[in-house]
Write a structure and sequence with these properties.
11 helices, 6-stranded mixed sheet, alpha+beta, 3 domains, 5-stranded mixed sheet, 465 residues, Creatine Amidinohydrolase, Chain A, domain 1, Creatine Amidinohydrolase
């Protein structure tokens, strides 16, 4: 087993995550890729990319502001412009940024909240143009990941040639370092614990949002930096998959599946599990087996040199499980890289991978997730495993049991013994009754003879009369 799980503290008596190595290796990786590219510099506004390059972070509240940014010029060190006093904080606590030299205050338009007349977009563009000019890079293309339109126009007005920088950053983040893999594995360990608590607590009367609250509590108490989302889907909401939780109350016989997405030190999880409450119908069991089969077939295929096309060929076409095309069924039979962002390279989908395959490489970390609707028309199974590609195969990080459908809730007992955990949701569909003088007597699990039993009972009554 290559994966290791440590405590969550730093200690002097054991090397766990080496954060200095993490920062250095990430920066060196993107520097080398930038040097091999045709770009003169990278300008990043996406907080994930800013963190990868500068190892700075100011809280998840800033993720949607597009306000902070960094510039990585060819053959130079990054410069970070941050939100007000955060820049001063970095000067004090982030020595790798060389104080005021590379940690500066700077703010964009806050997604248009500031009036255009305030000139924030122009100020950002001017800052970038000055740095490029000083390095003789103004005439070189600058890769930008995401950008507000006013900032884009202002950069172009300053003479900056803006091109797509997302692909280079995705390429850099695609292969994980030793410490990134450890952090991703640690994040999965925390979700293992969240599922353990969910399994113990789920019962009729619990709501989907109660489950979300419990999972979030477990994760934050263990040290999660950000619970990005907990998909909690139950009962009739399971098919089709709505991708959002509600306040629906769990009932006996319900399927319930969850996707837990959170980050530890920035590194994320995508981790589905499916349960049933109290008991499972045969249709639910069959759906789970088929969902598990497609997932296991994909995992068994994973090793360096295999392509995403090789994997998705193992999965059913959209039309085979009730959708008109692959776009309509997107992300139900799916795979995606996981790192500082929840969806990174490579992507596994019949929508794109068959015609545009990507080669699987050692050091990739990705999640594979499958879905199958039950024959009852409302249940479904959803399972996902997160794994790292090794030299000759892969190793799965997600450890909460999922080889068979798990039944949550108390075990019920009848006068004659335990109630079977495999049963239909409606009680009358589970019984076969006796004949003759005792038609009301329960004989064995139902096999379709109830109508015959009722007829025999009526005939007996007529004779007795």
């Amino acid at each position: 087993m290559a994966l290791k799980t440590y405590g969550l503290m730093g200690v002097d008596w054991e090397e766990r995550v080496n954060y200095e190595r993490l920062r250095t290796e990430r920066l060196n990786r993107i520097k080398n890729l930038l040097k091999e590219s045709e770009l003169g510099a990278l300008l990043c506004f996406d907080m994930v990319n800013v963190r990868y390059i500068t190892a700075t972070h100011i809280g998840t509240w800033a993720m949607d502001k597009v306000a902070r940014f960094c510039l990585l010029p060819q053959n130079d060190e990054p410069i970070n412009w941050d939100f007000g006093s955060a820049a001063r904080h970095h000067q004090i606590y982030c020595p790798w940024l060389d104080g005021e030299q590379r940690s500066r205050a700077g703010i964009s338009t806050l997604r248009g909240a500031m009036l255009p007349a305030a000139g924030r977009a122009e100020d950002v563009a001017r800052k970038i143009r000055i740095e490029l000019e000083e390095r003789g890079l103004l005439n070189e293309p600058v890769g930008v990941d995401v950008v507000e339109l006013p900032v884009l126009f202002a950069l172009q007005k300053e003479g900056v040639k803006v091109v797509d920088g997302q692909q280079l950053m995705q390429q850099a983040r695609m292969i994980k370092t030793q410490d990134e893999i450890t952090l991703l594995n640690t994040a999965c360990m925390m979700v293992d614990a969240a599922y353990e608590e969910l399994y113990r607590v789920m019962k009729p009367g619990i709501r989907e949002n109660d489950c979300v609250a419990l999972a979030s509590k477990v994760l934050y108490e263990l040290g999660s930096e950000h619970v990005e989302g907990v998909n909690a889907i139950s009962g009739e909401r399971c098919s089709p998959h709505p991708h959002v939780f509600s306040d629906r109350v769990l009932r006996p016989g319900d399927p319930a599946y969850f996707d837990i997405l959170h980050s530890y030190m920035g590194y994320r999880t995508c981790y589905y599990r499916t349960f049933v409450i109290g008991s499972a119908s045969q249709a639910q069991i069959d759906a789970y087996k088929r969902c598990r089969y497609y997932l296991d077939a994909a995992i068994d295929m994973i090793k360096p040199g295999v392509t995403t096309a090789d994997v998705v060929k193992l999965w059913p076409k959209a039309e085979e499980f009730g959708f008109p095309n692959e776009e309509a069924a997107f992300a139900l039979q799916y795979g995606h890289g996981v790192g500082l962002a929840i969806w990174e390279k490579p992507v596994f989908s019949r929508l794109v991978s068959l015609e545009h395959p990507e080669v699987i490489q050692e050091g990739m970390v990705f999640a594979l997730e499958t879905f199958w609707p039950a024959a009852d028309g409302w249940s479904a199974a959803r399972i996902e495993e997160q794994l790292v590609v090794t030299k000759d195969g892969c190793e799965v990080m997600t450890r909460f049991p999922a080889e068979e459908l798990m039944v949550a809730g108390v075990r019920y007992y009848t006068a004659t013994g335990p109630l079977s955990p495999t049963r239909e949701t409606e009680s009358h569909k589970n019984l076969e009754y006796g004949h003759g003088d005792r038609p009301w007597e329960h004989v064995s699990p139902r096999n379709g003879n109830l109508q015959n039993a009722v007829a025999a009972s009526a005939k007996g009554e007529a004779v007795n009369a």
